[in-house]
């Protein structure tokens, strides 16, 4: 028989024909006298009724019950119960179909429905004991542990539990008449506190349903008081400046229906299934522009550090989504200007203004390591040809700031400080060439070096400001996860962010194609 270990090693594209083969083999075995898993004495067992109910509830976890033919299997089980005793071959086929559907459901719940590398995200789907083999299913059924198996397959993360609850909440609002029509046009380009607007009652109703405005707010057509506070709360949850002014961006977000938000939550849940979360890690969520540091060894799932970040510019220089291991910290780093930046930005500036070379603390470095501190057309031409490179000395103008966190990866992405900290005050922070700038480098360094007590905050700051480059290897590699979730739950509030890189759209399309391919093969 095809076992669970074999299935886990195969791509999704091969699972359907293999499941079909498994069905045929299971039917053959059952007809040959071997016991069925879900039927006894020609009738469906309590476990059979339970499993079809579990499959029908797949949407509670952001999955699609149609992927497991939940309605068809439930109807078949009910029919088998009414027409008992059914033909052995028919029962065997249905028994195998239930097993295949439940196994696939558990696998999807545990590891996700697609390989993340299929959409250009550098994670390996987590392994595990799903889908279960026949022997483990026998044990689950005998011990009445099907519900426990489902709970065990879910990602063991507080964020997943919170998103699951948020999904139920937004689905409950999907057909609410408050979103039957768009809000009336604004009175001009924007709505400011104190203005009259006929859409205020509808706005208040939406804000109250979303939890941004206390119920029972007095009815008026003037935009003021608690309604303004409710808009500020809404803006804060949607990555907008919480100024209480309803401009184009806020108006667009207010008109997004709850059903669309539910789909956004589903995509975040899908990503949590295959985004790794080691006990101790640095996690950057790109569309949120936030870094969190986790250390489960302290007995809490909450982050021990949180800070704003700047990520790669959309659509020019996207920060890749992947995982790696931090191995070094570099204090007072040099910045080796990447060839693409040197040719596209630095060289044109040097040709226009040679003084820019010394103002920025640049130097040329030859292929033999020779350092040249004077600017000339010959040296600039050598950089253009790839025979020399430009680097920036440590100092106040250094593009990496005064510290660099290195986790080797093919894209040469790293975390670093910046000489332009004012940019962290912006709501949208995609200004980099792909690397990630951190707002609180000392706090991050303290977390990274927490297992090296000799590195006090004072020593870290001294090394950062010394002006002499020094690289410190870490005693143990530290996982760094660059992830992409446009929905998070923080402080019991559901927060949504724009699909900055279009990755949600790409994931949604991959899931759609996968579902269509599977269903077409079933016909």
Topology, please?
Blueprint lengths: L3 H5 L3 H20 L7 E2 L2 E2 L1 H11 L13 H13 L5 H24 L22 H10 L2 H8 L4 H15 L27 H10 L16 H12 L10 H7 L3 H17 L5 E6 L4 E6 L9 E8 L9 E10 L3 E2 L2 H14 L3 H4 L2 E5 L4 E2 L4 H8 L3 E5 L10 E4 L7 E3 L13 E3 L3 E3 L2 H8 L8 H8 L5 E14 L3 E4 L2 E4 L6 H20 L1
Parallel strand pairs: 3-15, 5-13, 12-14
Antiparallel strand pairs: 1-2, 3-4, 4-5, 5-14, 6-11, 6-15, 7-10, 8-9, 8-10, 11-12, 16-17
Helix pairs in contact: 2-5, 3-4, 3-5, 4-5, 5-7, 8-12, 9-10, 13-15
Span of the ends, CA to CA: 24 Å
The main pleated sheet reads as: 8 strands, mixed, barrel
| Percent range of helical residues | 40-55%
Structural class: alpha+beta
Total count of helical runs of at least 4 residues = 18
User: How do the strands line up in the largest sheet?
Assistant: 3-4-5-14-12-11-6-15
In angstroms, what is the radius of gyration? 28 Å
Number of domains: 4
Give unreliable regions as ranges. Answer: 1-32
Shape: globular
Q: Roughly what is the average pLDDT, rounded to an integer?
A: 90
What proportion strand? 15-25%
Count the beta strands.
Answer: 17
């Amino acid at each position: 028989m095809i076992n669970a270990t074999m299935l886990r090693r195969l791509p999704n594209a091969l699972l359907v024909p293999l499941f079909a083969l498994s069905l045929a083999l299971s039917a053959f075995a059952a007809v040959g006298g071997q016991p069925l898993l879900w039927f006894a004495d020609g009738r469906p067992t309590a476990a059979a009724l339970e499993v079809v109910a579990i499959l029908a509830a797949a949407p509670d976890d952001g999955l699609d019950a149609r992927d497991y033919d939940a309605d068809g299997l439930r109807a078949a089980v009910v029919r088998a119960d009414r027409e008992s005793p059914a033909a052995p071959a028919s029962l065997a086929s249905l028994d195998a179909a239930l097993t295949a559907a439940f196994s696939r459901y558990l696998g999807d719940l545990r590891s996700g429905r697609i390989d993340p590398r299929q959409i250009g995200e550098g994670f390996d789907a987590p392994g595990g004991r799903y889908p279960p083999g026949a022997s483990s299913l026998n044990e689950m059924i005998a011990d009445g542990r099907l519900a426990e198996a489902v709970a065990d397959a879910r990602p063991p993360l507080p964020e997943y539990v919170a998103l699951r609850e948020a999904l139920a909440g937004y689905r409950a609002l999907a057909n609410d008449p408050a979103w039957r029509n768009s809000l009336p046009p604004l009175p001009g380009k924007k709505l400011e506190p104190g203005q009259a607007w006929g859409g205020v009652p509808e706005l208040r109703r939406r804000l109250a349903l979303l939890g941004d405005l206390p119920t029972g707010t007095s009815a008026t057509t003037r935009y003021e008081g608690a309604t303004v506070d409710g808009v500020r709360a809404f803006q804060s949850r949607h990555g907008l400046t919480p100024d209480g002014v309803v401009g184009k961006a806020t108006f667009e977000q207010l008109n997004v229906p709850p059903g669309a938000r539910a789909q956004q939550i589903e995509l975040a849940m899908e990503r949590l299934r295959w985004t790794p979360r080691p006990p101790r890690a640095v996690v950057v969520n790109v569309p949120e522009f936030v870094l969190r540091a986790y250390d489960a060894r302290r007995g809490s799932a909450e982050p021990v550090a949180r800070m704003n970040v700047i990520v790669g510019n959309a659509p020019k220089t996207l920060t890749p989504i992947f995982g790696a291991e931090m191995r070094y910290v570099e204090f007072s780093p040099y910045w080796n200007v990447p060839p693409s930046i040197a040719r596209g930005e630095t060289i044109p500036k040097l040709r226009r203004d040679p003084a820019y070379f010394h103002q920025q603390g640049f130097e040329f470095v030859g292929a033999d390591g020779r350092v040249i501190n004077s600017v000339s057309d010959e040296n600039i031409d050598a950089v253009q040809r790839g025979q020399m490179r430009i680097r920036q000395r440590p100092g106040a103008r250094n593009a990496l700031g005064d510290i660099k966190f290195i986790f080797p990866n093919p894209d040469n992405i790293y975390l670093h400080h910046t000489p332009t900290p004012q940019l962290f005050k912006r709501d949208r922070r995609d200004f980099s060439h792909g690397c990630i700038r951190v707002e609180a480098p000392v706090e991050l360094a303290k977390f990274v070096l927490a297992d090296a007590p000799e590195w006090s905050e004072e020593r870290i700051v001294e090394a950062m400001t010394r002006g002499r480059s020094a690289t410190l290897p870490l005693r143990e590699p530290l996982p760094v996860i660059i992830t992409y979730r446009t929905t998070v739950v923080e402080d019991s509030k559901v927060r949504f962010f724009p699909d900055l890189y279009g990755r949600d759209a790409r994931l949604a399309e991959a899931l759609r194609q996968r579902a269509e391919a599977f269903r077409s093969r079933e016909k």
